[in-house]
Structure formats: C-alpha cells, structure tokens
Design goal:
This is 2-keto-3-deoxy-phosphogalactonate aldolase. Belongs to the KHG/KDPG aldolase family. One of its GO terms (molecular function) is lyase activity. With 200 residues, this protein is an alpha/beta fold. It has helices at residues 14-27, 41-52, 66-75, 87-95, 107-115, 126-138, 158-164, 182-199; strands spanning 5-8, 31-35, 57-61, 79-81, 99-101, 103-104, 121-123, 147-150, 168-171. The protein has a single domain, classed as TIM Barrel. It is 46% helix and 16% strand. β2, α2 and β3 (57-61) form a beta-alpha-beta unit. It is globular, with a radius of gyration of 16 Å.
Length: 200
C-alpha cells in the first residue's frame, strides 16, 4: 500500500539523501520530496531516484517555474510539489509525465489547479485553512479530489483532518530536520505510519 503521506526533506544534504530515503521506505513512506531550497537538491533527487526510483515516488518541492520542472525531470524526479497554484508549473509537470501537487488555500486556487491537470492539491499552510475551512471547500470540489494537508499536521491531528476531508498529508519538520540521524527519521516515520494506518 502506498500511503498518502509525503515526506518533505527540507535541508537534506546529498550525502545523507540515500540513507534517509531508505529509512523512510523501510518505515512505509514511499512519497518523498526534496524542496529545491535545500543544499544541492537536484543531486539529492538524482541519487534517491537512482537508488529507489522503482520503489518510491521521488520528486521536488518548492518548485516555482517550468524550468525547475525540467531540471527535476532530468534528475529523475517523478513528482512536483509547489507552494502555489502556478498553472505553468502544473502544465509542465503533466507534459513531462510527472505527478503534480500544487499549493492551494482558496476555492479559486483549487479549481484553477484542477483545471490545469493537478493530480492532488496541497493545502498550504493548512493551519490557515483549518478543518472547518477544508470541510467547506471539500463540499464544492469534485468528489475524488485528493487534498493533502501540509503545515501544522501530524499524528496527533490526523483524525481531525481526515474527518474534514483530507486524503493525505505532507510532513516536514515532524519527520526530518537538518541534524536528524537516519534512526531519528525512521522512528518518526514509523510513528506517522502507525497513526495513518489506524485511520486508513
């Protein structure tokens, strides 16, 4: 089962990328994002894709332009996550055969992203929308729209977000911060997987 949990590895270094990626996959998380404002992100993405591209959906976050999309594709990434609903980025992602998860916060952004071909929507920052906001927006979105809550979410409030309509989550500092060991990441990932599986 591929869980709808995206690990956000902001700040990961290329020399630790493969080890961290392996720990996440071992724990049961196989959707992995390296934000482009990390150190040498394309190197990390390429190393992870070379090692685990058949076993995981690996890609980039904080993707702001079509050129970024092209660079990630060249590195072997298959997923594009962005902080905004840039339709050029969505279109470039889909043209390259990549999964697209743009950031949204309003109904206008949600529908614009879906019309442009987004595979799912990243509610960011989700603590600004809140679960009441998600319930309201979910009522008007197409029934199978996948909404990922990102920002202020974790095992303690997964149930609230799923009840409000979230399909999945993006987890950043709750799973990785610079300085975390591979063992730290694996332990946090295991806790997240256990909490997610209880509700799935």
């Amino acid at each position: 089962m591929s869980r709808k949990v995206i690990a956000i590895l902001r700040g990961v270094q290329p020399d630790e990328a493969v080890g961290v990626c392996a720990a996440l996959i071992d724990a049961g998380i196989d959707r992995i994002e390296v934000p482009l404002n990390s150190p040498d992100p394309l190197v990390s993405i390429q190393r992870m894709a070379d090692a685990f591209g058949q076993d995981a959906l690996i890609g980039a976050g904080t993707v702001l332009s079509a050129q970024d999309v092209a660079d990630v594709a060249t590195a072997g990434g298959k997923m594009i996550v962005s902080p905004d609903a840039n339709t050029d980025v969505i279109a470039a992602s889909k043209a390259a055969g990549m999964a697209s998860y743009p950031g949204v916060l309003t109904p206008t952004e949600c529908f614009a992203a879906l019309r442009a071909g987004a595979d799912g929507l990243k509610i960011f920052p989700s603590f600004l929308m809140g679960t009441d906001g998600l319930k309201a927006i979910s009522a008007v979105l197409p029934p199978k729209t996948e909404m990922y809550a990102v920002g202020g979410v974790g095992p303690a409030n997964f149930a609230e977000w799923i009840a409000a309509g979230a399909a999945g989550f993006g987890i950043g500092t709750g799973i990785y911060k610079p300085g975390f060991s591979v063992a730290d990441v694996k332990a946090r990932a295991a806790e997240i997987v256990a909490a997610y599986d209880e509700l799935a």
